[in-house]
Amino acid sequence: MENPTREEIGHILKQSKRIAVIGLSDNPARTSYMVSKAMQDQGYDIIPVNPTIESALGVKAVSSLQDIDGPVDIVNVFRRSEFLPEIAEEFDRFNSNVFWAQQGVVNEEAYRFLKERGYTVIMDRCIKVEQALTK
Questions:
Q1: pLDDT over 80 at 135, yes or no
Q2: Is residue 29 part of a domain?
Q3: Cα gap 31→21, rounded to integer Å
Q4: What's residue 95's pLDDT?
Q5: pLDDT tens digit string along 18-48?
Q6: Is 103 among the domain residues?
Q7: DSSP strand pairing (55-56 vs 59-60)
Q8: Which site in 64, 81, 101, 116 is 20 to 30 Å from 108, CA atoms measured?
């Protein structure tokens, strides 16, 4: 598995505006909430994707990627590594090009599946840290 270079990641983040966050919690103490709030504070449009919550960060949550209207620049995943192959298949039926799995989240099967289909795949990196490093 190989991530894009830091320069390429910086370019992706500069070009992106809309981020769907799979597994976003409505609990301010959770990492997914803190990271997504920081990205929202930087001007990104955050879409919570979590069937178990009503809303997060002042935005109504959706149950799946298929429930989102319009394109999304990045799909950021806060789920355990074993869920990535299933999420990758859902992503493949969705309108986005960048699949981003948060720090500590890696799955070779999902990586290969997405790369074979021409997607940009980033795994085991924190989007908030990368955004801060590439400003």
A1: no
A2: yes
A3: 12
A4: 86
A5: 999 999 999 999 999 999 999 999 999 999 9
A6: yes
A7: antiparallel
A8: 64
pLDDT digits (tens, 9 = 90+) for 50-107: 999 999 999 999 999 999 999 999 999 999 999 999 999 999 999 899 999 999 999 9
CA gap 73, 99 in Å, rounded: 9
**Domain CATH for 93:** 3.40.50.720
Query: For residue 46, which of 131, 99, 55, 105 has the smallest C-alpha distance?
Result: 55
Q: Return d(Cα 74, Cα 19) in angstroms, integer.
A: 5
Does residue 1 fall inside a structural domain? no
Full domain range(s) for residue 86? 6-133
Report if residue 36 sits inside a domain.
Answer: yes
> What total number of domains does the chain contain?
1
Nearest to 99, CA basis, from 63, 124, 134, 69: 124
Phi, psi of 113 (to 5 degrees): -55, -50
Amino acid letter, 66: Q
Q: Are 119 and 97 in contact (CB under 8 A)?
A: yes
From residue 108, alpha-carbon distances to 1, 78, 101 in Å are 7, 16, 12
pTM above 0.90, yes or no: yes
